Amino acid sequence: MKRTIYISLIMMVLLTTGSCKKFLEVSPPDRMSDAAFWKTKGDVESSIANAYGFIFDILTNGPYVPCNGDIRAGEFNPNGFDVFAAIAAQDLTNTSRLSRYNMNKLSDWYPFYQSIAACNINLVRVPGVKALSATEIKQYQAELRFVRAFTYFYISRIYGDVPLYVEAYDQRPLPRTPMIEVLKFCLAEMDAVKDDLPWQYEEPSKWGVRAARGAVYALIANVNMWAAGFDKANQQQYWKNAAAAIKSIYDSNAFELLPIEDFRKIFKGRTKESLFEFSVNANYGTTTRYVSIGQWTLHSPLVFDYANSDCYFDADYLKRIFPIDAADKRRDLWFFSPYANNTSAMFVKYSNVVNKVTSTSWLLDDDLIIFRYGGELLLGAEALANLGQDAAAIQLLNVVRKRAGAPNYSGGGGDALKDFIFLERQRELIGEGIRWYDLVRTGRVTDPTQCKSWLTPEQFSRGGWTWPIDGKARNNNPNITLNTYWIK
């Protein structure tokens, strides 16, 4: 149902401007295997919306983004929500504890492969649609290759090594491909199409929700930075590539930081700060409680009849990233009583609420933001600092701090700067589903001073940073190996 609703929403944007299944089998209602379907531009737009819809569906089947991205690091007080406590305790094979909010289903990677299969089929079919011009074919293919590469990048961060399917209708029982090879595939794909899309679309209705060149370069930067954390022999080149991608975004002048006071506009989506996001819109029925962490961090008067928040960020963590005596509008605007360390506190970064005073069934109307300009500038700063280009790193860092009403960075270079940029990403992107991944790729996840739910170096090396893979992945594919760390 969610995918159908999301596809309907995406189609309006486009037009207004199971374990028993075989590998990568696309469900019949999608009609993508029917040659009679591929006749018009509308058919192509519908199929592309379907590819987006598959990935949106799985990312909102449960609170996968906040749980594995934020809550897993341990600084989110679960306040009796056992599913969150289990995730923070790395108790990820306990299906009874994870069953709430469908978190146990994240171990099933099949839905992600539905999106990949849709892209593979589209890439074969689109060039044969005579109603399209050569330019349109090129742009549609670039967009599809972005969605496919993004999906591979996303699942690599969750499961590590994954099977790499790139051909339409491929039903072979492929083994898992080493993660670095998958990431290199993503980079090659994006390098091939990076100039085939506009930096940004003219129609604001498409900003962020349709992959444009800014999204492609953001993905290039993020893939390189993730690869650098694991392929250490080639770190320098990955950092150079990431820095170059962010410089291209910066030099394009296609994006900007909105005033921090307009943060609700930022997270409602489709702004000049957005590089890539999935649309959530109450008017088209895509409201969901599983998009953001805001569902558990709001109370009256922002939502109806809730005297207290369900959960809250630990005060000690907030004091570390937002020192009490340091000026920062993000703390002042995104939090109510941040240091209370109880349910009187509120995290209001996500607070575009529907039905907030008319019923107890209030819903959040914030988009699922994947890449935005503020976070990507800081990723570029991190890459530059790793390369020893401290002055250029500080320049990007201070662009973000200026928008936040925080003083310019005045510390030294080297490790001090790298540590500060890491904390700045935690400040800027708190609650946006990036903390665990930043801890993992930088190796800080093995440092007990960096997060509550830290891993020992031995646990990390055995794959403790991954999520378990459901055993049914082997039902039709005996060549699949599971993540051995999670096998009891």
Would you spell out the secondary-structure blueprint of this structure?
Elements: H1 2-16, H2 41-59, H3 64-69, E1 76-77, H4 82-88, H5 95-98, H6 110-125, H7 134-159, H8 179-193, H9 213-228, H10 235-252, H11 263-268, E2 274-278, E3 312-313, H12 315-321, H13 329-334, E4 335-336, E5 346-347, E6 353-354, E7 363-364, E8 368-372, H14 373-386, H15 390-403, H16 415-428, H17 435-442, H18 457-461
Antiparallel strand pairs: 1-3, 2-8, 4-5, 6-7
Helix pairs in contact: 1-2, 2-6, 2-7, 6-7, 7-8, 7-9, 8-9, 9-10, 9-14, 10-14, 14-15, 14-16, 15-16
Explain what you see:
By secondary structure, the protein is mainly α. It is built from 18 helices and 8 strands. A two-stranded antiparallel sheet has the order 1-3. The chain has a two-stranded antiparallel ribbon with strand order 2-8. Strands 4-5 form a two-stranded antiparallel ribbon. Helix 6 packs antiparallel against helix 7 and helix 14 runs antiparallel to helix 15. The longest helix has 26 residues. 50% of the residues are buried.
